[in-house]
């Protein structure tokens, strides 16, 4: 399972295969500004 670290928050999260970084951030409770609305 892929793992990502969101900096500067220092949050480490496992990602589901095929998930986007935005999906992983949301699941980990990390807020990321996204003008595209997640599309």
List keywords for this structure.
two-stranded antiparallel sheet, single chain, 2 strands, 1 helix, 21% strand, alpha+beta
User: Would you count the extended β strands for me?
Assistant: 2
Fraction of residues in β-strands: 15-25%
Please summarize the sheet with the most strands. 2 strands, antiparallel
Q: Radius of gyration in whole Å, from Cα?
A: 10 Å
Order of helices and strands: EEH
Number of helices: 1
Poorly predicted runs: none
GO molecular function: iron-sulfur cluster binding
InterPro entries: 2Fe-2S_ferredoxin-like_sf, Beta-grasp_dom_sf
Protein name: 2Fe-2S ferredoxin-type domain-containing protein
Describe this structure in words.
The protein is flat and about 25 Å long. Strands 1-2 form a two-stranded antiparallel sheet. By secondary structure, it is of the alpha+beta class. A hairpin with a 4-residue loop joins strand 1 (3-6) and strand 2 (11-14). It has one domain (1-39). The longest helix has 8 residues, at 21-28. It has one helix spanning 21-28, and strands at residues 3-6, 11-14. InterPro entries: 2Fe-2S_ferredoxin-like_sf (IPR036010), Beta-grasp_dom_sf (IPR012675).
